[in-house]
Every structure is written in C-alpha cells, then in structure tokens.
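re: ur question from earlier - yeah i can do the single chain one, its not a big deal. heres the input i used so u can compare w yours
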Amino acid sequence: MGSTIRVSDDTKELLERRKREDETYDELLARLATEGDDMVAGSWSSEKADVARERLKKSRESFESGR
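and the output i got, formated as tokens:
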C-alpha cells in the first residue's frame, strides 16, 4: 500500500529537477534518502567519479538555467 506525501509547489519543482527520466518519484525519494551513505573519501573508482562529475555538471547547468 502506498502513502501520500504533500509537498509545496516549490519543493515539487526542486524534486523534478533531481528526478531522472526513467525514475519514479518513489525511486527518486529512496535515492535521495540514501544518497551519501557510501561516501568514503577515495573509495570511488575513476569510472564512478567520472559519472558523479558529469551528474554534478548537469545539476549545476540545470540550476543555472532555472534562474
């Protein structure tokens, strides 16, 4: 059974910016809730670090275009 979570329009807009195209809101919230759990300095492979850099770049571009 699911639950309903009420959020403001501003919060929904912020979530939409972070949501991936192939991701449900449930998956987005689960990802955000666990994000950073595996953050240990120096533990990422160079491939994982490259992916993280690209996502950060896209996030910044999205934020800047939303201004």
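The chain has a mean pLDDT of 86. not sure if urs matches, ping me
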